[in-house]
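#onboarding

Welcome to the new folks! Below is a worked example of what a typical request in this channel looks like: someone posts a single protein sequence, and someone else replies with the predicted structure as tokens. Don't worry about understanding the tokens yet, we'll cover that in week two.

Example request:
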Amino acid sequence: MKSVNVHDAKTGFSKLLSEIEERGSRFIICRNGHPVADLVPHQAVNRLQPDKKLGALRIKYDPIEELAPADWPDDAR
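Example response:
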């Protein structure tokens, strides 16, 4: 990653974006020599892939099975 101070990042923002688009460069923006932010290429998230955590869940009952009368609360009978 290349370091850029805030003033240079502000004045050359378009140039930084062009370099990110063309080369995939990454920048650290610093204020007074201390890192403040990272300027990195965008990575699109594939939202069509199933979530691994949800795929690991197992339901141990039939969710569409009708309840027996004894399973209903007394006030709902």
